[in-house]
Structure formats: C-alpha cells, structure tokens
C-alpha cells in the first residue's frame, strides 16, 4: 500500500508517548490499521501503539485498569462501564464512532438442512425438537450483536429467555464453536460470518443494516482522566481516525483496505473473504448474495459523531433487554450524556461522582 507524504509536524509535547490503543481483529477496525499504515497518526503529531486483544471482556478490563489508554470497542461498553455493570463504575468517554452496521446473524448449515430459512421457521423447528435447547452466541451482553440477535429471534415468535440459550463468545472463537456444534448460530462482525460461509458450515440469515438501520457499532473508548491529561493527543488521534474513516468509506479504496487488513497479520491473510463485506458482493451461503454498499458505513451519515439519537438507541436497548431497569432510565440518561459525546475533546468537564449501580441489578456483561 502506498503511503501519503509524511508530515513535518512534531510530536505533541507534555503527553505520554505512545498512546496504547486496544482492538479486536474485525473488519471494522480498518480505520485504526489504515491510520497506522498511512502514517496519519504521525501526520497529526501523535505516536500510537496498537494492541490486538482476544475479546471485549479483555478490552474492558485493560481499559479499566489502565493497561491501554483507549480502545476500539463495542458502543454499549461506554454505557455499561459508566453505569458500573460488571465492573466498578468508570468515567469512560466515547468521543468518536468508528462505524455504523457491520454485523450479521449466521446460522448453522444443519439448521438450513432442517428447513430453517428465517426466525419463524426456526420457531417451528424449536417446537418440534424437544431433545435439546438450541444455543446461539453473541460477543457481549451489552453489544449490538446481543440486541440484534434477540430482535431477530423475537420477530419469529421465539421467547429468548425460555426457548433458546444465548451465550457469550469472543468474536475470534465463534466459527470454531459453530464447527464443533457447540452453538447453532451467532451474531458477529465480519469477517467471521463470511468465514463460516466459506467453510461450508454456516449461512447468513440477516445483516445488522437490515435489522437496525443506522445503529452505532464500534467507538473509540477512553477515560476522562486520559482526555483531561492528554487532550491534544486525544484530539490528534480522533482527527487521524476521521481521516482514515473517510478513506475507508470511499468505494474506490475498499479493495486496498481489504488488502491492508489481509496483510496486517491479524486475519490469516484471507483477502478474498475480507472483500466480501468491504467490496462485495456478500455471499450469504444460500446461493444468494447481498449488496454491501451500506454494510459498513465508516464516515457517511455523520457516522463518526456520537449523536443523541444513537445514544438513545443504546439506552432503549439496554432497558428492553433487561440490562437496566426502567426505573434507572433517568440515571442512565445522565451517564450517557456524560460519556456519549465528542464535547469531551474540546470542553473541560466538571468533576462528578460516577453513578452508583442499583444493587438489585447483577448482570454478567462478559
């Protein structure tokens, strides 16, 4: 990949160098890898060290205990950590959104062979199968994947609390669990849906674009402490990432983005599989394919801005899926206002105690 002309801008002074940013190897981490490869961080005067992690629980813990300064993270982690769900309350901030959409629901080839074509036909199979309970994987309880899978299941009349079992798995482990028959399907980001299709063990039943148009997916998650101490550096990082997102969103650059990911060492070099969601068409594993114009949205539609509308979607899903009680809406709204904003990069924030979690709520958000 050709690199842009290097900048003569000196590194920012008086701040920690380099900034450690954790990420998970998914297609939507592309802006991070593009910013590094095209030297956009250096252009804006900041040194960044990327740290590839296993799953979102690891990202959460490393951010909580200061082992990374920021992270490419699922959007729901901002509200979950701010509210202290499964962790001590932490003043995290999500000032930048990486992308909208990017996920899909993949079901096993066995379900296809048994007549499943949608959630309604899955419900019929569940009713006729009394020997076992069907199991589906998500990457975190507070992720869009969990919300989307539950929405899709409910659309077929399936009771998500009694008819099926939903388990948490790291994104990189869902394909192996499907191949071993430990799960019957999952909702995950690319390329792990396309990997299952390529292996002949799964088929794509729905995409996140279809289920929740415009939903926020990954964010740059950091802490108030880091921004307050290193505001210039945080601003430089988001500026570099926005430039990378513009590059990633351009149709003419998508093949180059897929090549960069494939040669990064994080994706086993499978460029053709990465191209399925980035360039298209997306092979559904059903002899059909789907257009991917809006499968990943990295910059269009104000994608990089943590808007109040997208924040409300997150809060509504937390309550609808029983991660928070309806009585906690006011408290959670205040928490969301504090963490779901780009203002943290430009305006000093008043010190305030992190909200206390209602002790009646004990949820595992691995």
Question: What does the secondary structure layout of this molecule look like, with pairings?
Answer:
Blueprint: E1 19-23, H1 30-37, H2 40-43, E2 48-52, H3 56-64, E3 70-74, H4 76-83, E4 92-97, E5 100-101, E6 103-108, H5 109-113, H6 119-128, E7 134-138, H7 144-155, E8 164-168, H8 174-179, E9 185-189, H9 192-199, E10 202-207, H10 208-211, E11 218-223, H11 224-229, H12 231-249, H13 254-262, H14 271-278, E12 282-283, E13 289-290, E14 296-297, H15 308-320, H16 329-339
Parallel strand pairs: 1-2, 1-3, 7-8, 7-9
Antiparallel strand pairs: 3-11, 4-11, 5-14, 6-9, 6-10, 12-13
Account of the 3D structure:
This protein has 366 residues and is α/β, with parallel strands linked by helices. 38% of the residues lie in helices and 17% in strands. The chain is built from 16 helices and 14 strands. The strands form four sheets. The protein has a five-stranded mixed beta sheet with strand order 2-1-3-11-4, with helices on both faces. A five-stranded mixed beta sheet has the order 8-7-9-6-10, with helices on both faces. Strand 7 (134-138), helix 7 and strand 8 (164-168) form a beta-alpha-beta unit. The longest helix is centred in the middle third of the chain and has 19 residues, at 231-249. The protein is globular.
């Amino acid at each position: 990949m050709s690199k842009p002309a290097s900048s003569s801008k000196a590194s920012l002074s008086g701040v920690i160098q380099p900034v450690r940013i954790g990420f998970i190897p998914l297609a939507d981490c592309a802006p991070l890898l593009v910013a590094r490869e095209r030297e956009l961080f250096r252009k804006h005067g900041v040194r960044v060290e990327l740290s590839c992690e296993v799953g979102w629980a690891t990202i959460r813990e490393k951010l909580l205990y200061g082992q990374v300064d920021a992270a490419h993270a699922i959007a729901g982690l901002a509200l979950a950590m701010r509210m202290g769900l499964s962790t001590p309350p932490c003043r995290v901030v999500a000032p930048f959104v990486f992308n909208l959409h990017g996920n899909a629901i993949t079901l096993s080839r066995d379900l296809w062979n048994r007549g499943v074509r949608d959630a309604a036909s899955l419900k019929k199979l569940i009713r006729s199968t009394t020997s076992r309970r069907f199991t589906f994987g998500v990457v975190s309880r507070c992720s869009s994947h969990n919300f989307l899978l539950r929405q899709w299941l409910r659309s077929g009349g399936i009771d998500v609390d009694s008819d099926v079992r939903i388990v948490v798995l790291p994104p990189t482990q869902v394909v192996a669990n499907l191949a071993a028959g430990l799960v019957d399907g999952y909702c995950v980001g690319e390329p792990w849906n396309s990997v299952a299709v390529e292996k002949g063990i799964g088929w794509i039943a729905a995409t996140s674009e279809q289920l929740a148009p415009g939903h926020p997916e990954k964010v740059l998650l950091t802490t108030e402490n880091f921004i307050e101490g290193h505001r210039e550096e945080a601003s430089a990082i988001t500026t570099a990432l926005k430039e990378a997102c513009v590059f990633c969103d351009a149709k003419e650059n998508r093949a180059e983005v897929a090549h960069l990911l494939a040669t990064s060492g994080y994706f086993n070099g499978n460029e053709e599989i990465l191209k399925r969601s980035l360039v298209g068409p997306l092979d559904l594993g059903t002899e059909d394919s789907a257009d991917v114009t809006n499968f990943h949205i990295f910059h269009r539609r104000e994608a990089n801005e943590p808007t109040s509308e997208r924040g409300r979607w997150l809060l509504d899903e937390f309550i609808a899926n029983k991660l928070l009680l309806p009585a906690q809406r006011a408290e959670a709204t205040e928490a969301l206002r504090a963490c779901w904003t780009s203002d943290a990069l430009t305006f000093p924030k008043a010190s305030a105690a992190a909200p206390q979690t209602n002790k009646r709520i004990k949820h595992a958000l691995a």
